[in-house]
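Many introductory courses stop at the sequence. We go one step further.
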Amino acid sequence: MKGLAFILMALASIAYANPLNGVYKYTYEYNEPNLKEDHYLEFKDGSLTYYGTSDLMDEAREGYNPGFFKVVASNLVVSTTEISFTLTCLKDSYFEKAITPFASPKANKKWSISDCSGEKALKGTIADGGKLIEITGTNGKMKFIKVNK
């Protein structure tokens, strides 16, 4: 009897997997053939990893390429319709080449053009059954669309 109860509990936990688990992509509208500045949210096991660019922390980049970072969010709060979290980026968090959940370039040098260290609290909404997350960022709203489970 205990074995059956354990199996039922295990099945219930599998059925109640976090619907946000997976990767979401924001496609930057001014991407260039050799410079993709997309951002990603990766939800896994109750945590969030954010992949982004220095533009999120630096409101006035002009004349140079952004730095790219990957950080684990803190203060993550998620409901069925809202999300909030905090990103903390240190100067050494940034790299010259894009980092995504799907690719992390080898020999990726540290980016040292600007000091975009700081903390940013972000909020947003969750819609379409968890397939769309809209975050209000430095440069307006960013729509993240779920790209895998």
